[in-house]
Amino acid sequence: MSSYQDDEEGVPFDGQASSFPKDFGYSGFEGDPENGFDHKPRILLMGLRRSGKSSIQKVVFHKMSPNETLFLESTNKIIKDDINNSSFVQFQIWDFPGQIDFFDSCYDFEMIFGGCGALVFVIDAQDDYNEALNKLNLFVTKAYKINPNIKFEVFIHKVDGLGDDSKMECQRDIHQRAIDDLADSSFEHIHLSFHLTSIYDHSIFEAFSKVVQKLITQLPALENLLNILNTNSAIEKSFLFDVVSKIYIATDSTPVDMQSYELCCDMIDVVIDLSSIYGVKEEQEPAAFDKESSSLIKLNNGTVLYLREVNQFLALVCILREDNFDHKGIIDYNFLCFRNAIQQVFELRNKTQSPLTNSIGSPVVNGKNIIGEGHLSPTLTDEHALS
Ligand SMILES: Nc1nc2c(ncn2[C@@H]2O[C@H](COP(=O)(O)OP(=O)(O)O)[C@@H](O)[C@H]2O)c(=O)[nH]1
Ligand SMILES: [Mg+2]
């Protein structure tokens, strides 16, 4: 294991959280605690050389601009990156060198896959992908044998160079061949998820959001809270954003359309940019996003974007019709209830070391199952909200 390098290891979170305790984040991965590894879900980035793995990691989590990735040097050892220093989203990303080989004895694959939550396999769609598909099959089957709980995600990457038709064609082809290959090696029960991605638009953030969401055990509870909030406040769409990475860690159960997601991402940029220019007090540590953060943007098509701080790391961004924004008082009140409920979900998780979930996989808040009728309705509902 001498080839591992920790040079990008993030500074541990310093515990300065305003609203939440310092261990606020995801629950630890289900790996063996004895092996001395960090108890964070681990996401592995794999794929051929130059497929775009390091670029993805830099753009999504380190604010690198897509053009700068042209100058990235190729990775020749596993780079472990701790995503937790300033962000709610806490996990490790391991960026693998493209030329990694299973017969290389310096890698301990039992350990690598054993504690892994998700394996992201990146395929360069602008290149010939035959070799990539062979590698995919090899990696997935090997990883599955060691740890069948891994979520397998395939990023069909660099699709910015393809037209709409060829994107679809490429996805269909890769999907079909990957599934066929698995069937040929008698692993047809392995589930692969496919995403079309590019670092030049929001698709990479969207895809990563979905990967990260699968690692959040509290997701059903968060979704449900967002649904309740929306119904009672006449909100059309709401996202719970990790502000630093602009990954959404949950959204309500209506389908996500890319445009709304992009609008919300752009709103976060606007808010952070404006407050780092005008909103930072001199005597304080510069913090562009804090308890006071909130913003309202009216679009000229009768739609309103509304952003509120949920905690140091998270923001709620909602899209609603301008007419429904007349009830701002109710929306704000419902938001406070929502924020409280979120806080309870995570406090509970932090308190109990034992598994949080019950039979239907959702946490219990205040002795009540968070999924189910009537939950929180006494506080969140207001008859006037929809009248
Ligand atoms: N057109 C395009 N190029 C990309 C994209 N992502 C990465 N690249 C380029 O692909 C090259 C290889 O990227 P790199 O991250 O070093 O690949 P790695 O070897 O898999 O880590 C770089 O020149 C990137 O600028 C993308 O989404 N679209
Ligand atoms: Mg690399």
From TrEMBL:
Localisation per UniProt entry: Cytoplasm; Lysosome membrane; Nucleus
InterPro entries: Gtr1_RagA (IPR006762), P-loop_NTPase (IPR027417), RagC/D (IPR039400)
Main location: cytoplasm
Alphabetical GO biological process terms: cellular response to amino acid starvation; negative regulation of autophagy; positive regulation of TORC1 signaling; response to amino acid
Extent of the signal sequence: none
Statement: the UniProt record of this protein carries the keyword Transport: no
Alphabetized GO MF terms: enzyme binding; GDP binding; GTP binding; GTPase activity; molecular adaptor activity; protein dimerization activity
This protein's name: Ras-related GTP-binding protein C
